[in-house]
Amino acid sequence: MKRILPLLLIVTLLVPVAACKSTGSTGGKGEPLMQPEPVDISGLDKDKVSKAVFAAVESRGFIFESGTKTSMQIGWARGRHKATWKIDFAGDQATIDYVSSEELSYNEDAEGNPYIHRTYNGWTANLRSDIAREIGKLRFGS
């Protein structure tokens, strides 16, 4: 009994800490879904932009799902977690938008604000960074 009591005390103290860490500060909703800043592509040839965006997508292992001359839909999967984005580069900016996800706790609050697991935001930030890098190479040379 003397050994069980300290173990129960430790478990009792750790469970609330683990629960707080997993739900974050939004009460279990996850983090606000990141809408990354657009990447400036003004004055660049759309065919070259398309190739640069594809190179960025490919460089980190994102999966090309479908596309046109001025947009593409891509995916990423890690275990049972999956996400899909649309990258649009029709105008003077390349934009990255959420399309769907699986096992990433996507939800919206009462006001319609989207929340998702923080992993999605990390993947999105990496994608945006890779696209900006490839567009920089295109604009300024490698």
Write a compact overview of the structure shown.
The protein has helices at residues 4-23, 46-59, 118-140; strands at residues 31-32, 39-40, 63-67, 71-78, 81-88, 93-102, 107-108, 114-116. It is α+β, with helices and mostly antiparallel strands and 142 residues long.
Q: Say what the CATH topology is.
A: TATA-Binding Protein
Largest sheet: 5 strands, antiparallel
Secondary-structure content class? alpha+beta
Number of helices: 3
The CATH superfamily bears the name: Kinase associated domain 1, KA1
Q: What proportion strand?
A: 25-35%
Number of domains: 1
CATH class: Alpha Beta
**Main β-sheet, spatial strand arrangement:** 2-6-5-4-3
Q: Any idea what the CATH architecture is?
A: 2-Layer Sandwich
Structure description:
- It is a single chain.
- With 142 residues, the protein is an alpha+beta fold.
- The chain has one domain: Kinase associated domain 1, KA1 (TATA-Binding Protein), CATH 3.30.310.
- It has helices spanning 4-23, 46-59, 118-140; strands spanning 31-32, 39-40, 63-67, 71-78, 81-88, 93-102, 107-108, 114-116.
- It has a five-stranded antiparallel β-sheet with strand order 2-6-5-4-3, with helices on one face.
- Mean pLDDT is 86; it is low at 15-26.
Lay out the secondary structure.
Elements: H1 4-23, E1 31-32, E2 39-40, H2 46-59, E3 63-67, E4 71-78, E5 81-88, E6 93-102, E7 107-108, E8 114-116, H3 118-140
Antiparallel strand pairs: 1-8, 2-6, 3-4, 4-5, 5-6, 7-8
Helix pairs in contact: 2-3
